[in-house]
Every structure is written in C-alpha cells, then in structure tokens.
Design brief:
338 residues, Dihydrodipicolinate Reductase, domain 2, 6-stranded parallel β-sheet, 9 helices, 33% helix
C-alpha cells in the first residue's frame, strides 16, 4: 500500500482523493494539509486522513510515501523540491510550474533524490487523442499539414476575487494555465517541439483581473503549423482537428468527458466517405494515479513525466512572453537537461 499525503484540499484535491480512495488497498489517503483549518478538518473526516498543521509536518511523517500537490500554480516548484528533499514521490497538478527555470530545479531535485515525479496532464489519457495519433502513424491523414484546437469553458465567470485562480499571477493569460496547457500538451504529444509562437490575449467581459481570451499561432520544427484558442468566459468547447494531405481527423465535444456523454471523432478522407470512430470512456483521474503507483513500484511509467511537463512549461512561458509583447514571435526555451 502506498500512503499518500494530500496538499491542497480544494475541489480538484478532493477529486484526486476520491480517485485514490477508489484504488484502495493499493493507495491510501493517509495525511492532509491546507493552510485553511476548516478545509483540513473537512477533508480529514471525508477521507479518513490525519490532518497536519504544516507542509513540513506532512513531509516529515514517516507513514507518507508520496505527496499529491493540488495547490496554486506558483507554489508547485518549491513544494516539489521540498517533497523531493524529504524523499517523497510527487504527483503535481499541471502546469508543473509557471516558469521553465523553476521546473528545471524541481525536476533536478527529484532526479537527485531518486523519487518519481508525475504531472497531472490527465487529458493526455483520453481516448480521442490516442486515436488521432494512431491515424497519423498509420498514414491515414497523409502528410500532416496543420492542426487547430479550442478548449474553453465558462469557469472564469464563476470566479470571484477571493479565489486564487482569479489572480493574474496564478492564471496568467486567463485560461492558458488551467485550460490551454492541455492543448499545449496534446500538441507536443502529437507534433513534437515548437519552433516559433505568436500569441495575443484580451479581456472583454471578465470582472476579475484575468484575461478571458487567448489566441495562439504556432509553427513546429517538423513544419506543421497550428493555432488554438482558449477562453475562460464562453460555453464549454473542446474542438481539435488535424488536417493532412490524405484526410482530416476531427474531435468534438460540447460537455466534459463522461461515461454517458462521449465526444465524436470523425475521419474524413480526401476521397471517400467519412468514418465515425467510437471514443471509449477512460477515467483519466483514476488512471493517472494508477500509472503513478506503477512507476513507484517499478512496474511501469507515469502518464506524463517531468520532462514532458517541462516542455509544456517552456512553451507556455513563450506564449505568455509573446502575448505580453503584443504578439511578437518567440522561440520556446527547450534548452537544458530534459
């Protein structure tokens, strides 16, 4: 049994704890910490965890094998380093950090202590992107030319100034850190590293300090071009299309992935009839914790490791730099030991 210490006990921390509880006896929710005392108590009662008065106390606990970090983005780097220093395996929510330099230090700390680092890009495990990757590998799209995506939700409209996600320092570019990072990860997964990026953000309707609109244009080292939008103040949208010389693949959803509400995936050849491919349900929250446990036990690999997550951070950093300059092209800094 792998004993887990949870740090960050809000909505997503609880979702991760429910997924871990469903994997008993392999995983056990052992301890928890939040700076909010009532949050600690509620979480402890719901999941049978021992509340800790500080992060240091949780990391010093001998009955904690690994930590789950669902904390504000700006805290991830230092908390990963602290957990690695205590020789605890780490599962951290995406983005791993907001700056590539912080991500490099965190990754180096985990490597130096020999601990597993997993990053919660759970959408990497969805069935739709895997089907598209298989279609590309099988040559069904021919030469890949271009990709476009939109991942947007109305979540920004529901944030008030008291929530940490409503601060521009935690959610730079509005939806880019919480939502756009998923598209960044999918694009890296399918097309490799980016050569140049240009981006713009805007605030049209949000009452907090966040931007509500982001638009990003990319050229990959392979020659593929792409663009994506990520909005924080519009109906749920998940669209992803890859265009090739022999056909295109289009993934479409108007609601979050659920067992009873499946997205559509259509393959349209240049010549011939379109084909609709069934997209099976994957409990990505649970599956990523299973992969984390596999890696800790030496039976497999994490779903998204520190190297992949660091590439995502490097591209996010370049996108934000471009947006801050009004769209000036930027080159992601992929340098360093990935």
């Amino acid at each position: 049994m792998i004993a887990l210490g949870f740090v960050g006990l809000g909505w997503w921390g609880r979702e991760l704890a429910r997924a871990a509880s469903a994997l008993r006896p392999r995983l056990r929710v052992a301890r928890c910490f939040s700076p909010i005392e009532n949050e600690r108590g509620d979480f402890a009662r719901e999941f049978g965890a021992q509340p800790c008065a500080s992060l240091d106390a949780l990391l010093a606990a001998p009955d904690v094998d690994a930590v789950i970090l669902a904390t504000p983005h700006s805290l991830h780097g230092s908390q990963i380093e602290a957990a690695a220093g205590a020789r605890k395996h780490v599962f951290v929510e995406k983005p791993m950090t907001l700056a590539a330099a912080d991500g490099r230090r965190a990754l180096a700390a985990c490597r130096a202590r020999g601990v597993t680092l997993a990053v919660g890009h759970n959408r990497r495990l969805l069935a739709g992107p895997a089907h598209i990757r298989q279609a590309i590998a099988a040559g069904r799209l021919g030469t890949v030319l271009h990709a476009e995506a939109n991942f947007s939700t109305p979540e920004g409209l529901r944030l008030d100034d008291r929530h940490w996600r409503a601060r521009a320092a935690e959610s730079p570019g509005g939806a880019l850190a919480p939502l756009g990072i998923h598209v960044i990860d999918m694009f890296h997964f399918l097309f490799g590293e980016v050569e140049r990026v240009s981006a713009m953000t805007a605030r049209r309707t949000m009452t907090t300090e966040l931007d509500d609109t982001a638009a990003v244009l990319l050229r990959y080292r392979s020659g593929v071009t792409g663009y994506f939008g990520s909005l924080y103040a519009t109906p749920y949208t998940s669209e992803f299309t890859v265009y090739g010389s022999a056909g295109k693949a289009s993934l479409h959803a108007t609601r979050p992935d659920a067992p009873e509400d499946r997205p559509t995936l259509d393959l349209q050849p240049v010549d011939g009839s379109p084909e609709r491919i069934p997209v099976p349900w994957v409990d990505t929250t649970r599956r990523q914790l299973e992969c984390f446990a596999d890696a800790i036990e030496g039976k497999g690999a994490v779903a998204v490791d520190g190297e992949d997550a660091l590439r995502n951070v490097a591209l996010l950093e370049a996108i934000l730099a471009s947006a801050a300059s009004g769209g000036r092209p930027e080159t992601p800094d992929y340098r360093g030991d990935f």
